[in-house]
Amino acid sequence: MKKSIKKKMTDKFIETCKAFGLKITPQRITIYREVLNSFDHPSAEAIYRKIKEAHPNISFDTVNRTLLTFAEMGFLQIVEGSGDVRRFDPNAEPHHHLRCKQCGAIIDFYYKKYNQLDIPEEIKEKFSVNRIRVVLEGICHRCQDHTNRREAPFVSARVPLRGR
Amino acid sequence: MKKSIKKKMTDKFIETCKAFGLKITPQRITIYREVLNSFDHPSAEAIYRKIKEAHPNISFDTVNRTLLTFAEMGFLQIVEGSGDVRRFDPNAEPHHHLRCKQCGAIIDFYYKKYNQLDIPEEIKEKFSVNRIRVVLEGICHRCQDHTNRREAPFVSARVPLRGR
DNA sequence: TTACTAATTAGTTGTTATTCCTATTTAATA
DNA sequence: TATTAAATAGGAATAACAACTAATTAGTAA
Question: Could you list the residue range(s) of the whole structural domain that residue B151 is in?
Answer without folding.
Answer: 80-158
